Structure to design on (149 residues):
């Protein structure tokens, strides 16, 4: 088990801790390191960097000025012992991103590889990643992508 902190990128105030997790698996830390955004408390935070300090994993964030939290009507179905990743179609100048597919993984490594991939193939179509997010409000990871080519 490890400790993870989300810190605000604010040097003048000593990088204050926004959120922390005292007992978190290193696998989940890896999944979160792979994400560009965090949604928590209906606020979107953008990752600026990651660090390791004296046994603590740190993700530095700032409030996103371009993104807003979305209340999707559909909720991911909770599957005991699995990690959910929604693939959503990224579209310019919109707030809602259509759900393309929901992946369920029993293995952290498989989920991490999906989040780190630049391209995914689904139903004969290639999708190019635009960003990845951990949505704590909905307890799901999101892979934003647009059709490639």
């Amino acid at each position: 088990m490890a400790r993870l902190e989300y810190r605000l990128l604010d040097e003048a105030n000593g990088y204050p801790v926004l959120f922390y997790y005292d007992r978190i698996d290193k696998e989940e830390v890896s999944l979160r390191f792979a994400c560009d955004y965090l949604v928590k408390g209906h606020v979107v935070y953008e990752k600026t960097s990651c660090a390791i300090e004296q046994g603590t994993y740190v993700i530095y964030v700032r409030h996103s000025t371009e993104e807003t939290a979305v209340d999707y009507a559909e909720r991911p179905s909770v599957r005991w012992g699995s990690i959910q990743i929604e693939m959503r179609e990224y579209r310019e100048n919109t707030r809602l991103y259509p759900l393309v597919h929901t992946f369920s993984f029993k293995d952290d490594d498989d989920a991490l590889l999906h989040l780190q991939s630049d391209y995914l193939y689904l139903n004969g179509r290639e999708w190019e990643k635009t960003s990845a997010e951990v949505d704590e409000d909905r307890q799901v990871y999101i892979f934003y992508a647009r059709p490639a080519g």
Summary: The chain has a mean pLDDT of 92. The longest helix spans residues 108-116. The chain is about 10% helix and 50% strand.
